[in-house]
Design a protein that fits this description.
Layout (H helix, E strand, L loop, with lengths): L3 H15 L12 H11 L1 H22 L5 H5 L3 H12 L3 H14 L2 H15 L15 H38 L4 E6 L2 E7 H25 L2 E2 L9 H6 L5 H12 L3 E2 L10 H29 L3 E3 L18 H24 L9 H6 L2 H20 L1 E3 L1 H9 L6 H10 L5 H9 L6 H9 L5 H9 L9 H7 L1
Parallel strand pairs: 3-4
Antiparallel strand pairs: 1-2, 5-6
Helix pairs in contact: 1-2, 2-3, 2-8, 2-15, 3-5, 3-7, 3-8, 6-7, 8-9, 8-15, 9-12, 12-13, 12-15, 13-15, 17-18
C-alpha cells in the first residue's frame, strides 16, 4: 500500500469514532490490530491492489509489445509511463470513492476499476490506451493477483514480525531460565524434574519450525495466475498468435508483480497456497494455545508469579487477584482464528467446474483470520512480559517429591542386573509421599557398586534434571 503512515493517521481517528459501535471486536475492542492489517486486507486495499495490477499490466504491454502495436510503441517513454504509473501511486481516499461510485452503476467491482483507470488515462491525454486496459484479462486475473499481493504484504509486515517477536521472547526466557529446576507433571502427577527454560524451549523449537514453513511460503509460494477466462489464454493468443503467452504470463507475474507463477488453472487460481498458509498458521495458533494453557496452569500452581501493575484490577470483588487474562485472551482468539482458517482451508480447495463465486466471499475473511491470530500473539507477549519464575515455590515442590528419583534408582538397579528393580521401586514409592531420608536409606541398603550408590546419594530432585540445560543451549 502507498502512504501507509498517512493511512494510519487517517484511520486512527475514524476507528476511535466507530469502535464503540463495531460488530466485530477487530474493529472495536481490538482496533489497534485492525489498524495494522487494514492497509493489507481492507476493501480499500483490495481496490488499490486491483488498480496496481491493471496499471502494471498496461505497463507490461507497452514495454513488451511496442513492436506489435503503434499505439503501444508511441507511449514507450518515461514521460508517459510515469503518468500511467501515477494512477496507482497517487491513489487515495478520493480515488477509492470514485471507484465505488462507478461500481454502484456497474454492479461489478473489477469493471469499476477498469473504467476508473480509463477516465484517468483520458484526463492524462492518453485516451488511445483505453482499449488496452484489462486487455486479454478476466476479472480473476486481477483479483487473484491483488489478493496474492495483499496476503504477501500482510504476512511480511504484520503477522510474521509479531510471530518472530513472540518466538524471540520465548527463546530469551528459555535461556534465562535454562538452569532453574522445576518439578515436571505427566498425567497431572509429579514426574521426573525438568527446568523452566527447557520447557520454554519446547515451545520455541516447535513455533520456530512452523514459522520457517510460513516464511518459505511467503518468500517462494505466494501463487498467481494470469491466463484468461478459463485458464487457456484463449482470447489473447488469438489476438497475438505468435507470442509465447505462457512465458509472458510468467514474466509478468514473477518479475512485474513479484509473485510465484501458477501455470495450470481454471478461471481461478487454485488457492492451494492459501490453504497451506491457513493450515500452517492454524498449527502455529494451536502450539501457542498449548503454551497459553501451560502458562495458566503454572501460574495457578504458583510456579510463575505475576508482576502486579498498581493501577490494574484483577477482580471486581477480590482485591488480591492478579488475573492471568492475557493468556486466556490469547487462547480464545487462537480458537476464533483457527475456526476461520479451517473454514478457508476447507472451502478454497473446491470450486464448481471452471468457476463459481463462493471463494470470493470466503477470501474477504483472510484478514480477519490473521487479525485474531495477531491479537493472540500480542496478548501472549504481553502475558510473558508480566511473569517471573517463583523459585521459592519451585524449590518447595521439588523438596517434597523425593519419589521422583524412583525412575533413576530403578534404572541403576537394572544396569546392575537386578531383575525386579521396577517392582522394588513401585512397592517403595507408588502412591506414597516419600521423604529424603526414606530414599537415602533405601539406596544405602542396595547391593550395588559403591560408585553407583554415591552417585544416587548425591542427587536431589532439584539436581535430577538430565540434559535439560544442554538442550536449551544446543537448540
Amino acid at each position: 500500500m502507498q502512504n501507509k503512515e498517512l493511512f494510519q493517521q487517517m484511520r486512527e481517528k475514524e476507528f476511535a469514532q466507530v469502535a464503540p459501535f463495531a460488530l466485530c471486536p477487530l474493529d472495536g475492542r481490538y482496533s489497534q490490530i485492525a489498524l495494522k492489517l487494514a492497509p493489507y486486507f481492507s476493501e480499500y486495499a483490495l481496490v488499490e491492489n486491483r488498480v496496481y495490477v491493471e496499471v502494471k499490466w498496461l505497463q507490461f504491454l507497452i514495454e513488451y509489445f511496442r513492436n506489435e502495436s503503434e499505439t503501444l510503441a508511441k507511449h514507450n517513454n518515461s514521460r508517459d509511463l510515469n503518468r500511467i504509473l501515477s494512477i496507482y501511486k497517487d491513489f487515495n481516499d478520493v480515488s477509492f470513492m470514485e471507484v465505488k461510485e462507478i461500481e454502484k452503476k456497474t454492479n461489478h467491482d473489477v469493471k469499476a476499476v477498469e473504467l476508473y483507470i480509463a477516465e484517468k488515462l483520458r484526463k492524462a491525454e492518453l485516451a488511445d490506451l483505453v482499449s488496452f486496459i484489462h486487455f486479454g484479462c478476466t476479472s480473476e486475473d486481477i483479483n487473484n493477483t491483488a489478493y496474492a499481493l495483499m496476503i504477501k504484504g500482510g504476512l511480511k509486515e504484520v503477522w510474521l514480525p509479531a510471530a518472530k517477536e513472540l518466538v524471540n521472547r520465548i527463546y530469551s526466557m528459555a535461556e534465562r531460565y535454562s538452569h532453574i529446576p522445576m518439578l515436571a507433571h505427566t498425567h497431572g502427577q509429579p514426574a521426573t524434574p525438568t527446568t523452566v527454560g527447557k520447557e520454554m524451549e519446547v515451545f520455541d523449537f516447535r513455533l520456530q519450525k512452523v514459522l520457517e514453513q510460513v516464511e518459505a511460503i511467503v518468500s517462494e509460494g505466494i501463487c498467481a495466475k494470469f491466463n484468461g477466462a478459463t485458464g487457456n489464454y484463449s482470447a489473447i493468443s488469438v489476438a497475438y498468435p505468435s507470442e509465447d503467452w505462457i512465458g509472458l504470463s510468467e514474466e509478468f507475474v514473477e518479475n512485474y508483480l513479484g509473485l510465484n507463477f501458477n501455470p495450470v488453472t481454471t478461471q481461478i487460481e487454485s488457492h492451494d497456497y492459501i490453504c497451506e498458509l491457513a493450515d500452517c498458521i492454524r498449527h502455529f495458533n494451536n502450539i501457542l494455545m498449548g503454551m497459553d494453557l501451560d502458562m495458566w496452569l503454572y501460574i495457578s500452581m504458583e510456579y510463575f508469579k505475576q508482576l502486579a501493575v498498581e493501577s490494574e484490577v484483577g477482580s471486581s470483588t477480590m482485591p488480591h487477584k492478579v488475573n492471568s487474562i492475557r493468556f486466556k485472551n490469547s487462547e480464545a482468539n487462537c480458537d476464533i482464528s483457527n475456526a476461520l482458517l479451517m473454514t478457508l482451508s476447507n472451502k478454497l480447495t473446491k470450486s464448481r467446474m471452471q468457476r463459481d463465486l463462493s471463494d470470493s466471499s470466503a477470501m474477504r475473511n483472510i484478514g480477519m483470520a490473521l487479525g485474531y491470530s495477531v491479537q493472540a500473539i500480542e496478548q501472549t507477549i504481553g502475558g510473558l512480559e508480566k511473569v517471573d519464575v517463583n523459585q521459592e515455590k519451585l524449590s518447595q515442590d521439588l523438596n517434597e517429591k523425593w519419589e521422583v528419583l524412583a525412575e533413576l534408582i530403578q534404572t541403576v538397579l537394572r544396569k546392575n542386573g537386578i531383575p525386579d528393580a521396577y517392582d522394588q521401586l513401585k512397592a517403595l514409592t507408588r502412591g506414597k509421599g516419600i521423604t529424603k531420608e526414606a530414599i537415602q536409606e533405601f539406596v544405602k541398603s542396595l547391593e550395588i557398586p559403591e560408585e553407583d550408590k554415591e552417585a544416587l546419594l548425591k542427587l536431589t530432585p532439584a539436581t535430577y534434571i538430565g540434559l535439560a540445560k544442554e538442550i536449551v543451549e544446543r537448540f
